[in-house]
Amino acid sequence: MLTMEYKYYSLNKQKNELTQQISEEKLKSKELNEELNNSDSKSYIEYLAKKYLGLIYPNEKVYVTNEKDKK
Question: How far apart are CA 44 and CA 61, in angstroms?
Answer without folding.
Answer: 20
